[in-house]
Design brief:
692 residues; alpha/beta; extended; 3-stranded antiparallel β-sheet; 4 domains
Length: 692
Amino acid sequence: MAVNRPHVEVLASPVTKRRKLVSKVWEAFTTNKSMDGKEWANCKHCSKKYARSSKKETSNLLKHMEKCPSRKNDEDQEKHSDETTATITTPVVNDNKIASDKEWNQLDDKIATDKEWNRLDVARMIIRHRCPWSMVEQDISKPFLNTLLPTSTFQSQSTLKADILHVYKEEKEKFSRSLTEISGRFSLTINFLGRDAAFRSICLIILHFIDNDWQPKKKILAFKKLGFWDGYWNKSRAFKSMLLDWNIDKNICCITAQNMEEEDNIVREIRKWPTYKDSVSTLRVLDCGCFVHFLNLLVEEGLLEVKDIFQKILMCNSYIFSTPDNDRKFRIAVDHARSQGKEVISEEVPVSSTYSTQMLDKALRFREAFRLLQVIDPDFSLNPLEEEWEKITRVHNCLKVLAEVGHSISGSRGLLTTNVFFPKVCSIYKNLIQWGKSDSSSDIRLMAYKLKMKLEVYWSKCHLVLAIAVILDPRFKFDIVESWYKEIYGQDADKHRKRIQDILKVVYDEYAGGFKNSTTSSADASTLFPDYVMLDHLGMSLTPSHGSDSDSGKSQKSQLERYLEEPKFRSVEEFDILGWWCVNTPNFPTLANMARDFLAIPVTAALANPTFISDVLKIDPISSDLDSEIMEALICLPDWLQIPPKTEANERGSTVSAQVGQLIPHSANQHSRMALRFSGPIQTIENEFLRP
């Protein structure tokens, strides 16, 4: 029948076709025929073409499937899609019965939880990278967010605020728990950053400590707004409330503030707390003035000595650039000065610029050009006298020494430990003494006297802390203190050296006998080297009785005495002092506790980036109108969320460095530890969506 003819033709056609494709490889390939009649197999994933043949056809295709990178990516995406779909699949029970109401409720809870987690991940990403809040409402970003997080719905900035607060509380609890595991004590810096529109004082509190891996840490702890009329008593009460909230009120080592007067008043109130009221020496809260703020005070005081002369130079500058003719004459004077080998500048000094050592340096380079301009232009009568030029040069040379000390701090890489500041302060003290004895200039003697008065206020507050910290530097020990005291105190050096020795002994005895963290840290130190038995100087096993400062059989030297008597580490500039103490903790466990606390004391409260608060406020115009809690979250969270994950390489590096340090003598273990440090991988955007 005619109606059956097509069916008959179809059945007959396989006689001329290839055999049926039965291999699973064809699930990843399509076949097509080119215009010349040649058959090809195309990879569905990367579109690579293979000519079809009867010999070893599937073998070649299978080899391609194993190596095809596009296929692997497609399968990973498909797997992720299947897992996502599985979370919203209708639940069933045995025998294909419909799920109960309880199972439906469990599914709803799971979907809601996933949506909440996904929203919090977006909040973390926005906080960490400081993305605009409007991102969750913009049409251009919705496809991106929906692709990454298909089960979530993004509503508004109000929802985002709630999510940020949720993340803040979650991360704060996590950070607070991590602080309870730290063996040492904590130091704090307090920065009063001015006032907001409501005249409330803006206060930033930063936590400084050395963690259990002997790594220095600096983390923002709080961002508070205090009332306009809050006195020091109310400020200290708010400060105490914050410390209680973090549960670190009994474990504070030192407080540093930019303004020493504010610092004194706050610390005075804190020392009245029951926790510290009966404590002596280091077990009470120490205070250490901000070194950068102190340097600025010295420079400002010195600049005042020549401010009138600097104003005359600015007036000369204004005269020169007031008319084209004056400018032309000045250019001629500059060319003459340069032809004589003099270093001069020809650009204008901005009148509105901040009066600083840099501006003073720039003004001094007009000197030769101004001198020649007086000859060329008879109307130019504003040039300072030669005596004034000499005075401003002498003052500039002195202030340049102070500025270089400040630059050495600001230009350093990483966090500076406390031991580096003692020689810097001592060098300033020595210079002021020498300037005060100057025979050639009474103005320098007067300036040195004024600066020395300010220095002695800072020195009386901080030099004990700085001296103890530098004694704990194995390159110098007590020798550096003795040497600098001879330079500063002359014949009275022995009296001051004896005082430092007595205070150091008192501090050590407190740590050895009463400090609550000493036992914990010593125990932790013993676990750093599980594969090795420590030996004493006679090659005997170092048992707990050997490691203590007293022995039942005979009196032994204390850890402090042994440390000071042992040979110093060679004086190299690039020295990882924390690495040295990490390796030598089993030998000096009590001193290691002291080092952990004293080396973490912040000697400067100055911010590395003073504008970062305003940078945060520029993220969104809405930020400036946020309440205090949201503002604190925006300031603190980016700092907390930037903690790098602990990688296998990091753990391996710590273990190897500890073992190598145990085996290599003190003179070589430092470089081994430095070489064996590893850094974690660079974080990519995918990390933002991994649940913590």
